[in-house]
Each structure stands twice: as structure tokens, then as C-alpha cells.
Write a structure and sequence with these properties.
The chain is an alpha+beta fold. Helices cover 30% and strands 31% of the residues. The chain has two domains: 93 residues, Aminopeptidase (3-Layer(aba) Sandwich), CATH 3.40.630; 113 residues, Gcn5-related N-acetyltransferase (GNAT) (Aminopeptidase).
Amino acid sequence: MHDDLMRESLGTTVEVGPFAVRRIHHSGKLNFVHLVADPGNELEAEIDRQIQFFQSRNQSFEWTVESRLNPPGLLETLQRRGFQIGPVEEIVVRPVMGSEDLPPPTRFRQVETESDLTDFHSVASTVFQKDYSLTTQDLRDHLDRGSRDHVAFLGLHQGKPVAVARLYSSAETPIAGLYGAGTLPEFRGQGHYRDLITTRAAFAHSRGSKLLRVDALPTSLPILLRCGFTALGETWPCRWKPQTIAE
């Protein structure tokens, strides 16, 4: 799955080192580091290099740790170096089907207009209890450029947006990533999460994607497994930020 990490996308620059891939977003707030080779005895030095790079830019970044790919002890080492370890997630994958059992068109809508973006921001900010302005702007940038690499969908109840979900895909890579799916509390248990899985899978198929990937929290893992996903291993988001950056 490393090829996908090395592909530049709208607003993101990729720098590939001997052990790690660094993804730098123009906003300065969506930066990621992934190990792609075992640094062995140079692990501490590699961590130093990444910290120093983002420290010089006064920017935070996320180091993504995957149990099946990264060397033993990486998580503990990052924690000692001041990284905040996020909740464990399960990596799950599913092949993209040639046809998907799509919900009725009255149940969902692709985000394509400024009004849709406003609805997306409102629902996502409420569902996840955080400001989704940065993600909304990234979606707007993709729409303005005519890019379909990052798209979003709204789940609808009687025409009202009640759920959100996003998809990262590319015609250049076989893996499509499902992100940010959630439903307003009063509309949960009505199939919106499942609808948005099949909706995004169909879109991924239209782009030539072969595999869907989700980094699933325990709350969403059961439904994903029921929808045909297979668990591959655990992953942790590990966040580092300079002390001068306020929350």
C-alpha cells in the first residue's frame, strides 16, 4: 500500500526519504509521516529528523503507526518523544465490486455545490464535535479545480442532510480510502452509514479503484465486517505539535 502514500495530490507535497514518506499539506495542518522501511538502529535519528523538520516550520504532524508494517517498539518510542497517541483503529479492506446495491437517490447526495458544502460542514461539525472548516475548504478546493480525488456525500432523511462521509481515490492508484463517516445521533440505526459505504464504493469503482480501505474505530468496526470488510491489523494516529501551537 506504499505506492498510494507516494502520490502527490491537490494541496499536498510528498517527500520520500530512505525510511519514511512525508506528506506536507499547504494548510500546514494536514501533515503526515509514514514509515516505509525499517530504520533499525536509526529509528531514533529518523524520529529526530521528522520532528526537526516540522519544528522548523512550526507545524504539527501525524505519524501513523501500523502494527503489521512498523518495527516493534515504535509506538512506545513516539510516546516517549512527546507524541500524543490516539485511539487504536483497525485497518479493514474490501474489494471494489463491479456493481453495488445503491440506496434510492432520495437517501444520499454528492457534495457538489456551496450549499452542499455548508450542509457538510454543519453535519460533520455536529457529529464529530469539532470544527470541520479545514476539511470543508479542502473539498471546496477540489471542486474548484475539477478534481475528484477527494469527494464527500450527504446521507438524507426526507431531504434533510443527517449523515456525512468522504472518499479519497485516484485513477493512478488501486486503493480508495473511506473516511469521516458519521450520522447525527437522532438518525442513527436507520442505515445511513451502510448507504454511504455502498455509495462511495460505487464512486470508487467509477474511478477504477480495486480495493477499499477504512481505518475503523471500534464503534464502526462491526458494521464494516458485516459489509464484507476483512481486518488486517491495528493502527494508531500519533500526533506531535510544537508547544507554540495552541489547540
